[in-house]
Amino acid sequence: MDGIDTRALVSAPTTANEFKGKVDPDWCAGCGDFGVLNSLRKTCLDLGLKPHEILTVSGIGCSSNFPGFFNSYGMHTLHGRSLPVATGAKMANQDLTVIVTGGDGDGYGIGGNHFTHTARRNVDLTYIVMDNEIYGLTTGQVSPTSNHDMKTKSTPFGSVEFPFNPVTSAIMNGATFVARGFSSDTKHLSMLMKKAIEHRGFSLISIFSPCITFNHDNNDQFFKPRIRRLEDENHDTNDWKTACEKAMLWGDTIYTGLFLQANDRPALGEQEPVLQKGGALAHRSLGLSDEQSQKVINGMM
Amino acid sequence: MSNDQFDLSIAIGGAAGQGIATPGGILAQIITRRGLHLNAYNAYQSIVRGGHIFLTIRISDRKIETHGDRLDVLVCLNQDTMDRHLGLIGPGGHVIFNGDKIKAGDPKPGVQLCPLPVAELSNKSRNKVIQNTIALGVIIYFLGLDFKVLETALTARFKSKGEAVVDENVNTARTGYKYAEENFDAYAQPIPQGSKPLALWTGNDALAIGGAAAGVKFYAAYPMSPSTGVLHWMAQHARDLGILVRQAEDEIAVANMVIGAAHVGCRAMCATSGGGFALMTEAIGAAAMMEIPVVYINVQRAGPSTGVPTKTEQGDLWQALGASQGDFERIIVAPQDALDAFSTIPELFNYCDRYQCPGIVISDLLISEGTFSVDPDDINLQPHIDHGEIITSAEGEEEYLRYKDTESGVSPRALPGLEGHVHVAATDEHDQDGVLISDEFTNPIKRRKMVEKRARKLKNIAKEISPPKLEGSANSEVTLIGWGSTYGVIKEAVEQLADKGVTANHLPIKWIVPFHVEAVTEILSNAKRTIIVENNYSGQFYRYLRSETGLNVDGHIRKYDGEPFAPHHIVDAVQEQLAGNTDYSVPTQEIMV
To answer: Which residue from B16, B272, B305, B404 puts its CA 20 to 30 A from A7's CA?
Structure first.
């Protein structure tokens, strides 16, 4: 925008509380999402980000209420549509740090097509999915990540479908940063979030974030004894095959951590010639120059 | 041809893959370079090879709005074309065809059959589409043009393929020209020369160029006939004009990507056809709720469902009116022709930006895929741009309210990235500060206030947009009402009716929402006999007119066979209605394409 005021009026927050939004979370007491929210506040503090430099985009669902509880520019979009909205926003203003937040139903169910293609495009976004393996806001129906046999209101006799694996899917779809976290392990989460935001390209952090109200199968008690961090085992983040093998484990051992990071593939914005000079698209002057106008007319003659 | 006007239509028919586009394109360029007006309509099917393609090119020395009623020259590239269309050619017409392969039928009296001995004329050539090039030479001779004109055009067209290809094409065309010179008669009235060269565009080009002129910096699309031409133009010009073009995974992604781009400050646009538009509709409501200006274009084709992908219809009016759940504010406009489509885009963006709402453009295959001449001086590529109220200073005294309840309903926007104005834009109902009303207690007073705030914007838009005007004498016997792309054909029908002694005027409607109830009511209340012309079955605009004004009309002319109206369809229907035979006419399509 011509004439925009670029003076720094505020310094970066000095406490994580400065990343608190206008309202307090409406999540159930004990919801895993609190751990994710606190981790992101701390990460943004540690990275020295200012609230106005961040755009947090969500879809619809319990966890998609996130932008309201976080002090940054926010968009609370349609169910499943956070990724395309975020893609448009990032392309239009690459100076923004764009963080996408949402749940498993929003991202892996109704938004599954966008998940595939946003990963493939390697859009420079950080996608934080709070996976509680259930539809919470609609009071407890089966989700794409619900376990086989899981009893929910829409599968009262047990689900006969097998769950979606976000980590292996993201790797196969071409995401260049693929991690899994656990909402009760906030220190580890902050470490992953910091790396994800710094990564240039599409970053997924799929987080086990238990729903204490509607999912009694996959709660803290389920995860805590099973979770092992890849960071404790010398995992090679360049090795996509081992990453997939480890991501498939679902039993006594369930891995969290950074499965894959590929730095050899440019992010979408880095490949778009139109974005390479002239600053953010959104701030460029509107309309055509005399020279451009003449070129358009010449092409029609 | 009438005495005072040069008006000639050339039709080229064949199968997909026979190379109709190239001679058509060369001919169009020769004509517009000469300063003559052109209106071309290509009838085709959704196949890459085979089927029946029929390109009609109408040429005139004055502005023409339709591809006309009549064919003067028929070029048959296959037997099918001869069999289907020979009967349409009247006295004075010419039928050009490969005499070696195509058997002529029985022409009407006065029609000159022009068989070409293609094998004999082309014994030295291996050009696969040789009969097209020979036919082009024949047409140029008929038009009374020097062969040099064609030689120049062919050279320009093929120079990138090397001298040998240029020579082959020029020599082949010359054999056609010479053969015609020796065996056929050229038109008595040679093709005139216009005052200056004209430009050539399709309606889709016009929509895209309108976007570029408006300052669109983000364009997203999923390919869908007949809207894909907009994507092609944008992709081709993206780098020169600094436009970011993305082909997305589906129209849902498209509709939401443009919202993201527009929210941070870009002018963003997308185009699709009815099926894709159906997928976009939830997002259109989201743009309205978050008060983000975006332009969505629906290029109608014959529906429903996959429908008839390559045929035209005005069948999506109610889809546009009902696009997205709930009550919300948006602008809907149906441009009248290519030039109008071009200039509508920047105008619509100004309204959308100032009133922070989505805009919907209803085009159709007839406008979007038609090829038209245009005076380059009529194309204003640097129109007035009004980006609306955008806060650019980080300093503010009070707490910033993104959705401030103002008298106009418009709340100044702060774009993400600006300090001191952090807020959330939500598709949930929200208060002035952007906080969801369902986050606390779903306060009915707040809900009512925000509904009314947004609604006030539409009332103000209505005051700015020009109301429809009656074209022609208010005293006419008949008032023809149309909307969108029927503008040109009704205009020409009115002229033809005048020649037959029937006075008719024309009320073209372009702005659908907001609708100018008072202006339309006043005009129609004073009309003697009102007839609505629509390219659909159920009278979509008629029902809308009734719902908005309570007025009834005296007659209907509807066409829903996939093909557009020709002027005589309307003329004949008006005459049968004036004779008291009916008040409901469905013209028959004569050209079987």
So the answer is: B404
Two tokens at A109?
Answer: 């169910």
CATH 3.40.50.970 applies to domain B200-378: yes
Q: Chain A closest CA to B79's CA: distance in Å?
A: 34
Regions of chain B with pLDDT less than 50? 1-2
pLDDT at site A216: 95
- Judge whether A255 lies within some domain: yes
CB pairs below 8 Å between A and B: how many?
242
Query: What's the confidence (pLDDT) of residue B372?
Result: 98
Could you tell me if A60 lies within 8 Å of chain B, comparing CB atoms? yes
| Of A5, A89, A301, Cβ closest to residue B264 | A89
Question: How far is B119 from B116, CA to CA, in rounded Å?
Answer: 9
Residues on chain B touching A88 (C-beta within 8 angstroms): 218, 220, 256-263, 268
How is domain B7-183 classified at the architecture level of CATH? 3-Layer(aba) Sandwich (3.40)
Encoding tokens for residue B394? Answer: 């980080």
Give the pLDDT confidence of A84-132 residue by residue, as tens digits: 999 999 999 999 999 999 999 999 999 999 999 999 999 999 999 999 9
What is the CATH classification number for the domain harbouring A270? Answer: 3.40.50.970
Order across the sheet with B530-534: list the strands.
B504-509, B478-483, B530-534, B555-558, B584-585
Domains in chain A: how many in total? 1
Instruction: List the domain range (segments joined by +) for residue A199.
Output: 16-300
Nearest CA in chain A to B256: A85
pLDDT in tens, A23-48: 999 999 999 999 999 999 999 999 99
Q: Please give the residue of chain A at the shortest CA–CA distance from B241.
A: A292
* Contact with chain B for residue A20, Cβ under 8 A: no
Domain ranges of chain B: 7-183, 200-378, 390-464, 478-585
Residues ≥6 apart with Cβ < 8 Å to B568:
B69, B493, B496
**Domain assignment present for A131:** yes
For residues B564 and B173, what is the distance between their CA atoms, to the nearest angstrom?
33
Structure confidence at residue B49 (pLDDT): 84
- Enter the tokens of residue B440: 């606390």
Domains B7-183 and B200-378 share a fold: no
Cα-based distances in Å from B410 to A136, B357, B455, B527: 36, 10, 10, 38
Exposure string for A120-155, b = 16+ CB within 10 A, e = fewer: bbbbbbbbbbbbbbbbbbeebbbbbbbbeebebeee
Is pLDDT larger for residue A10 or for residue B569?
B569
**Any residues with CB less than 8 A from the CB of A214 and at least 6 apart, and which?**
A132, A134, A135, A136, A139, A140, A152
What is the tens place of the pLDDT at every residue in A115-174? 999 999 999 999 999 999 999 999 999 999 999 999 999 999 999 999 999 999 999 999
Answer whether B209 touches A (CB < 8 Å): yes
User: Is A95 touching B (CB cutoff 8 A)?
Assistant: yes
Q: Is A2 domain-assigned?
A: no
Q: Is B421 on the interface with A (CB under 8 A)?
A: yes
- What is the reported pLDDT for B441? 80
Q: Which chain A residues contact residue B394 at CB under 8 A?
A: 5, 7, 9
Is A125 domain-assigned? yes
Judged by CB atoms closer than 8 Å, whether chains meet at A85 and B419 is answered as no
Element (H, E) at B452: helix B444-464
At B313-322, the pLDDT tens digits run 999 999 999 9
Query: What's residue B4's pLDDT?
Result: 75
Domain B478-585 fold: Rossmann fold (3.40.50)
Residue of B36, B222, B257 for testing the chain A interface, max A β-carbons within 10 Å = B257
pLDDT on residue B68: 95
Picking from A281, A289, A290, A298 by the largest number of B CB atoms within 10 A of its own CB, the best residue to mutate is A281
Residues of A in contact with B415 (CB under 8 A): 1, 93, 282
Q: Does A91 contact B244 at a Cβ distance shorter than 8 Å?
A: yes
- Looking at residue B186, its pLDDT comes to 87
